[in-house]
Amino acid sequence: MLDNFFNPKSIAVIGASKTPGKVGHDILKNIIQYGYDGAVYPINPGADEILGRKAYPLLQDVPDKIDLAIVVIPSKNVPDIIGQCGAKGIDSAIVITAGFRESGIEGSKLETELINKAREAGVRFIGPNCLGMIDTHSKVNASFAAGMPAKGNIGFFSQSGALCLAILDRALPDEIGFSKFISMGNKADISDIDIMLALAEDENTKVILGYIEGVGDGRRFMEVAAEVSRKKPVIILKSGITSAGAKAASSHTGALAGREAAFDSAFKQSGVIRVDTINELFNYAVAFANQPLPKGPNIAIITNS
Questions:
Q1: Domains of the chain
Q2: Mean pLDDT computed over 276-286
Q3: Residues 6 or more apart from 143 whose CB is under 8 A from it?
Q4: In contact, 34 and 148? CB cutoff 8 Å
């Protein structure tokens, strides 16, 4: 289902920029500099060429097939461009742009318009309001993160772009390897449920990490988590443990942090390992990534104390 996100043969960056420091420039630069060998099409009506690649004024001007669109344009124009993606035959998009549900009532209306337009156009999308996505095995860095994690077998998804950056900052110096690194943003279309199912089937992923601020369909989340955790370890860091955390989660992506006792119970029933800190998340990740799951139940533990 998500193959064109993880293994695209061609990528269009809609809103690509010639100006270093702008998100549209940094994403295009990351796609090019980390070894992606597919076709890359910058879309910008004010440029003939960006970073050595021919630029096109409009998406429809690209003569070739495009598998994945990265959208970095003002929020009010995003629904229309998603419609253009559908008309061009693009079925996968990553909407980096912010200014949707997380920004208030008008943004929430715009997000609903985006969802409806994407359904009409037959486009699945990650985001909006996200950092982007990285697949180290196909060398796709469709994000504006500063750096590319080492190739590995840890699949990570997060509702928070800021936490993605914190995880990358921690992982890069220690060369902790990831298979896929996915910032979900507002989860307006593709959700943690979709990502877990995809990572469960991904041969490059051995352990699944996630950061969530809330769950839309709790019953379906539990069903999928129970299914996936039988195949691979699923470790989740959830925000909102304190009242301050719950308020922060609500203002951040529009998610309402759920009651913690309910989440604890749901995680335990579905085989999810819950952690409370980034340190715990890393400790579990490294342990499961490097150690085969014991068949049990006859396990001996030796300590130095």
A1: 3-126 (3.40.50.720), 149-290 (3.40.50.261)
A2: 91
A3: 27, 30, 131, 132, 133, 134, 164, 181, 183
A4: yes
- SS3 call for 223: helix
The residue among 42, 52, 35 whose CA lies nearest residue 17 is 42
Q: Note whether 72 and 14 are within 8 A (CB).
A: yes
Identify the three-state secondary structure at position 43.
Answer: strand
Contact 140, 168 (CB under 8 A): no
Question: Taking 80 as the threshold, does the pLDDT of residue 292 lie above it?
Answer: no
User: pLDDT digit string (tens) for 109-151?
Assistant: 999 999 999 999 999 999 999 999 999 999 999 999 988 999 9
Residue 112 is inside which H or E element, if any? helix 105-121
Confidence of residue 295 (pLDDT cuts 50, 70, 90): confident
Q: What is the C-alpha to C-alpha distance for residues 149 and 183, in angstroms, rounded to an integer?
A: 14
CA-based nearest residue to 159, from 244, 216, 82: 216
pTM listed for this prediction: 0.90
Chain centre to alpha carbon of residue 254:
17
Distance (Å, rounded) from C-alpha 94 to C-alpha 78?
A: 11
State yes or no: pLDDT of 289 exceeds 80. Answer: yes
> What is the pLDDT at residue 255?
46
275: helix, strand or coil: strand
